[in-house]
Write a structure and sequence with these properties.
three-stranded mixed sheet
Length: about 140
């Protein structure tokens, strides 16, 4: 069965992009845009204290009429960070995301945080698996090797 480490190995960009809780939402949005990502983990000292996502931006900044220049990430981030181990199976990660109603999980190994798995990563993985099954069955049915 495929695991979180397999998903991380497929990703083009490695590592985790994090920001301090004291930066403005506007600054955080620049990072999201420049890195073409949908979530930032919020790091205070050596501790991950939250995650700031595009959803947080919409729900807690735009919809509430807050000024992104003066609003701090700490005031609008999601404080709960879900961590999984690199050997966690993808189906289990998907179940966690569904249960917690989240779109990003942090993958932490022995040396700390090693990556982020998004619901998009999980969906792409499933799509690739289904494509491989279709290819295999087509070859089987039509005798192509």
């Amino acid at each position: 069965m495929s695991r979180a480490a397999d998903l991380l190995a497929r990703k083009k960009a490695g590592g985790v992009i994090s920001v301090a809780p004291s930066i403005s939402v506007r600054e955080a949005c620049h990072v999201l845009r420049d890195r073409n990502i949908g979530a930032l983990f919020v790091l205070e000292g050596a501790e991950y204290v939250g995650v700031f996502t595009e959803r947080d931006l919409v729900k807690r900044v735009v919809a509430e009429g807050r000024d992104p220049e003066t609003t701090l990430v700490r005031d609008v981030m999601t404080p709960k960070v879900i961590f999984v181990k690199p050997d966690r199976e993808i189906d289990e990660i998907e179940a966690i995301m569904r249960q917690e109603r989240i779109r990003h999980v942090a993958v932490a190994g022995e040396g700390g945080l090693v990556g982020i798995v998004s619901i998009g990563d999980v969906t792409a993985w499933h799509a690739d698996e289904e494509h491989q099954k279709v290819e295999y069955l087509t070859e089987y049915l039509y005798g192509r090797a």
